[in-house]
Amino acid sequence: RVSSVLNRDVKQFGKKHMFDGSEETCWNSDQGTCQWVTLDFPRTVRVSQLHIQFQGGFSSRLCTLEGCRTGEELVKISELYPADSNAMQISPSPAFQVEETVLDKLKVTFGNSTDFFGRVVVYHLGVLGERL
């Protein structure tokens, strides 16, 4: 699930584009202050790395990761400080540390967008780890 899609145009800017492996497609949020992506995994996973690629000028200065097991409340895992660039950003790096966590649900909140209107554009979102 995602917080919003630009002009509700899911065909062109929907969440599926973060995971399709294409450099030509992206998820583009609508404007607003806190945008987010929630991932519900079909099985329990141990998350150890996050890969994210923004469009420069439409990135987030702060990404908060929250996670939980089924039936539990979300708990803060990490705060990440991505660069405002088009480059793929991979944890762990100095500003991009993900604490290894066992969970069934992961929420990435994009706070403090570099875009004046609060829009976020993500070309790739990858969560690495192992199924348990």
From TrEMBL:
Gene Ontology cellular-component terms listed: nucleus
Domain of life from the UniProt record: Eukaryota
Principal location: nucleus
Localization (cell): Nucleus
This protein's record includes keyword Nucleus: yes
Keyword annotations from UniProtKB, A to Z: Nucleus
Transferase listed as a keyword: no
Family, similarity comment: Belongs to the NR2C2AP family.
Record protein name field: Nuclear receptor 2C2-associated protein
